[in-house]
Write a structure and sequence with these properties.
The complex is a heterodimer of chains A (85) and B (314). Chain A is mainly α and 85 residues long. Chain A is built from five helices and no strands. Chain B is built from 15 helices and no strands. Chain B is elongated and about 100 Å long. Classes of the chains: A mainly alpha (85), B mainly alpha (314).
């Protein structure tokens, strides 16, 4: 359904949708990242460089537990920002 | 309330006010006697009542504008009047059917003739062939009268499915309005998040609206302007430096989202975010697109949202 849905929109808008979602996700992750201690940041680097997929997921699950809330808040912020822009 | 008679709810002040009003109408030459004055006052009251009904229709969302409210009130009045006339005729027919005369074989023929007259009058009022009027059905249940009156006026009782669709449509209009006005709330986003499938379907049908699709085709310049504007915003955002680990985490999340049920997030369990990511992200994106589309069109053209199926701009 996802693709069918996007196909209803002009071609140029499809990439924009992905880019806007990237912005929300990036900003949300940044908020979680800024809350990490230096020690956890170092641990993250280590896991994301040489850990398994499961270890990475586990790290995110443990250290970015507020990500859902951040995504909601960042979505709201982005919508307001674009409106003002 | 009257001092002399406490049961009289019509107060002396009200009586005095009305008398003054009547006198004023005669003094101003708008009426030459009290009968005419009464007629004018009745007309004013009726107009006031109708205006109130129209306001209620708009406030409840039943009508989107004054013209539609006026049409709905008119239909309601027509319906009430017609129902009243039919009910009276049905009541008379019932009296005949229950009468001794009708049971009397000698008088039955004459009574049947009378019944047929009522049946004929009902058929005329409903603009239906007489053969389609079943007096016993009409007597049995008032709902049957409602049904024939509605059918006669070309009104169809909305099914629960239609009512639900209408409710959903209104809800989507409200969300789009929030987005356009730049004041979408956390509650609204949460609502979408908890039921993404519903909103995806709603937005999907809105996008497929022929008027919307036609507008997209006929206005490539406006789409271009909107895309340019959004791209400028995105490019600026892309320039902001982000730690490599954040980029990697983002890549991982997007990769896992694409796997749906097979996602490691889902398998890991316990992380609430994981199971809503995929569907939520898509719904959110589409809302963002909508926001972009509406925002620019609204600014560039003063476009009324009715084109897209939504409510007009306030």
């Amino acid at each position: 359904m996802d693709q069918d849905f996007l196909n209803l929109l002009p071609e140029e808008l499809k990439n924009i949708a992905t880019d806007l979602y990237d912005i929300v996700l990036k900003r949300s992750l940044m908020r979680g990242y800024e809350n990490l201690s230096e020690e956890d940041k170092a641990k993250m680097t280590e896991i994301f460089n040489s850990g398994t997929e499961e270890e990475k997921i586990d790290f995110l699950k443990t250290h970015f537990s507020d990500l859902q809330r951040y995504i909601i808040e960042e979505t709201q912020k982005l919508m307001t920002e674009l409106k003002k822009d | 309330m009257s001092i002399e008679n406490p049961n009289n709810l019509y107060s002396e002040e009200e009586a005095f006010e009305e008398a003054n009003k009547m006198k004023k109408l005669i003094d101003e030459g708008k009426a030459s006697n009290y009968d005419e004055v009464e007629k004018i006052i009745n007309q004013e009251n009726k107009a006031f009542e109708e205006a109130n009904k129209m306001r209620e229709k708009i406030e409840s969302g039943e009508a989107k504008d004054y013209n539609e409210a006026e049409r709905l009130v008119e239909i309601e009045e027509q319906k009430t009047l017609l129902k009243q006339q039919i009910k009276e005729l049905v009541a008379n027919a019932e009296i005949i059917l229950n009468s001794k005369e009708y049971q009397d074989p000698e008088q039955k023929k004459e009574q049947t003739k009378l019944l047929e007259e009522y049946r004929n009058k009902i058929a005329q009022l409903l603009n239906l062939p007489q053969e389609q009027i079943y007096i016993l059905d009409l007597i049995k249940n008032n709902e049957n009268i409602d049904k024939v009156v509605n059918e006669s006026l070309g009104l169809k009782e909305k099914s629960s499915k239609e009512k639900e669709e209408e409710k959903n449509k209104q809800e989507l209009d409200e969300i789009i309005k929030e987005v356009i006005e730049g004041n979408i709330t956390i509650e609204t986003i949460m609502k979408i998040m908890t039921n993404p499938k519903k909103y995806m379907e709603l937005i999907s049908s809105r996008i497929q609206d022929p008027k919307f699709q036609e507008y997209l085709k006929k206005n490539p310049d406006k789409i271009k302007a909107m895309v340019e504007k959004l791209n400028n915003f995105i490019n600026k955002e892309k320039q902001a430096a982000v730690p490599e680990d954040v980029e990697k985490a983002k890549g991982l999340i997007k990769k896992e989202e694409g796997k749906g049920k097979e996602s490691l997030f889902k398998k890991a369990g316990g992380w609430e975010t994981a199971f809503v990511f995929g569907s939520f992200s898509l719904t959110m994106l589409l809302l963002l697109i909508f926001m972009g589309v509406f925002k620019i069109w609204e600014k560039a053209t003063g476009w009324n949202l009715d084109v897209g199926g939504g409510k007009g701009k306030k």
